[in-house]
């Protein structure tokens, strides 16, 4: 044995120390078989004392499960997905599961590779937030066909049959725009999100329905779509062309930040002349001037619920019914919309 390398304690070592058979130790560790509580307790105490750790690989071969869940997220650089991950990890840890995490960076090919990697790792199930660029979903159909349970979170795709856990994007957007209207805004710009994802569509629908409910005409010129390249420059040009704009509902807090900076550069004051509200409650909201009003999505709850759905399916002897669960949203009002309004709605 190499100097300084700690020897791995085996079941055989525990049996010798406890003066019992290997099968008795196995029963005690797995909580199975006819064995007295006194003997079980003694074996567990010896295992703790000797620093015994179960061989998960051997256990997986016996039980045909790895106690590992694969997670595919579009990215890590948004606080929203970090909190989703925290919610997932909490539930998995409480139930004795680990997770393998892959990111797609919004790319379909990377998403396909992530599926292959996780299937090769023999994960028991997968939790997936779909990539923005994905248009072909045969990789997920293959996962489902293999019998590996799938639960999707945050984004819905009608082409994939499965259980979903999402936030109420329509309701969140509706409340955000109504808040701007209630504070006097009538010409409200919507900074649209990326194409091909359900969250963009649902937030835009919430925006349009809130305008309709207040008898405000929908103006297509007030739905702003622009590539990331030269975004602020294009937005500045739009504000100069539409001086009547008095409100902005942004798909994300980062786009809300771009709006604040663009308005600042064209000489408009926020919120005195233009009120702004974003989406997702990213940390940037509290550290800008003015601070950004936003929609809170409860991402940790999304992660917890999705992980619970998946574990329920893994533990069930029968295939569970497909379901979609929607997590409610709420507003966090800060200085960027109206200074006199503070707190949560």
How are the elements arranged and paired?
Elements: H1 11-18, H2 22-30, H3 37-50, H4 56-63, E1 68-73, H5 79-94, E2 98-103, H6 108-120, E3 125-128, H7 138-145, E4 150-153, E5 163-167, H8 169-182, E6 188-191, H9 198-213, E7 223-224, H10 231-241, E8 247-250, H11 253-265, E9 275-277, H12 284-287, E10 294-296, H13 299-315, E11 324-327, E12 330-333, E13 343-344
Parallel strand pairs: 1-2, 1-3, 3-4, 4-5, 5-11, 6-7, 6-8, 8-9
Antiparallel strand pairs: 10-12, 12-13
Helix pairs in contact: 1-2, 1-3, 2-3, 5-13, 8-9, 10-11
Describe this structure in words.
By secondary structure, this protein is an alpha/beta fold. It is built from 13 helices and 13 strands. The protein has helices at residues 11-18, 22-30, 37-50, 56-63, 79-94, 108-120, 138-145, 169-182, 198-213, 231-241, 253-265, 284-287, 299-315, and strands at residues 68-73, 98-103, 125-128, 150-153, 163-167, 188-191, 223-224, 247-250, 275-277, 294-296, 324-327, 330-333, 343-344. It has a 6-stranded parallel sheet with strand order 2-1-3-4-5-11, with helices on both faces. A 4-stranded parallel sheet has the order 7-6-8-9, sandwiched between helices. The chain has a 3-stranded antiparallel sheet with strand order 10-12-13, with helices on one face. The protein starts with 10 loop residues before the first helix and ends with a strand.
